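REQUEST FORM: STRUCTURE PREDICTION
Request ID: SP-0412
Submitted by: Lab K.M.
Chain count: 1
Length (residues): 74
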Amino acid sequence: MAVAENARGSGYGYGSRILDALEADARGTGARKIVLNARDNAVEFYRKRGYDVIGDAETLFGAIRHVRMAKSLA
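STATUS: Completed
RESULT:
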């Protein structure tokens, strides 16, 4: 998922609302865990929502570093 750069941190909670909907959908399909790749600058966003860093992920376009994160839905 992504939120437009000018809308990040705006106080409207776009990212949180999108993530809540995605997690609800995953639970509805019986998923027990979510694993995702997050940009370096989004790690705290995901940590506040219960995700843990579990390793490195690929760097996109040779410049955008990502880490792998996971959250149990059980």
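NOTES: The chain has a mean pLDDT of 91.
Reviewed by: T.R.
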